[in-house]
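Figure 3 (text version): structure tokens given as input.
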């Protein structure tokens, strides 16, 4: 759960997107990671996130075993067992990595690029509205948060995934396009 909160925290700080979490996971949960995903990786953060990390030597390694994902960003290993705080789901030929527990899941579409993996979050571009999301999900709920220090309000959305519409969402022009990349280590 620690690592799910870690990644959620990173996503919240991305100022160029609208946060979207889901009450459910797409497709069917797998019992193990696909063999094509098993391996050792370095996590490469999206460009918009890297700008906030200037001057830091933050390097995150990720090891995917058949039944767990292990992350280390210099402060020790964080273990996530499959179908505990993380799941890998298959819908058609596509895989989705889900972190957290229902009803608050961070969902990433996994796209294989050569030996590497791209993790595309469900986050939308900045300024996306609930009305723009409704064609892609069976339910959309708006959350409004106010920063106690600045008084600035931000909207985020909680959606219920409709398996027949999720692919259309990822192909739309409202999804945030900067992925996290798992670069396979040699």
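Below: residues designed for each position.
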């Amino acid at each position: 759960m620690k690592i799910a909160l870690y990644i959620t925290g990173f996503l919240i700080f991305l100022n160029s997107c609208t946060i979207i979490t889901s009450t459910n996971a797409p497709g069917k949960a797998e019992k193990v990671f696909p063999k094509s995903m098993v391996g050792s990786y370095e996590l490469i953060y999206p460009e918009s996130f890297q700008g906030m990390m200037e001057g830091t030597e933050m390097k995150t390694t990720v090891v995917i075993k058949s039944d767990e994902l292990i992350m280390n960003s210099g402060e020790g290993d964080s273990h996530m067992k499959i179908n505990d705080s993380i799941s890998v789901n298959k819908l058609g030929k596509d895989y989705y990595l889900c972190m957290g527990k229902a009803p608050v899941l961070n969902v990433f579409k996994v796209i294989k690029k050569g030996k590497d993996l791209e993790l595309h979050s469900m986050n939308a571009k900045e300024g996306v509205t609930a009305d723009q999301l409704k064609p892609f999900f069976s339910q959309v709920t708006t959350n409004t948060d106010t920063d106690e220090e600045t008084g600035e309000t931000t909207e985020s959305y909680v959606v219920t995934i409709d398996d027949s519409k999720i692919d259309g969402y990822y192909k739309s022009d409202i999804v945030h396009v900067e992925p996290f990349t798992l670069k396979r280590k040699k």
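The mean pLDDT is 87.
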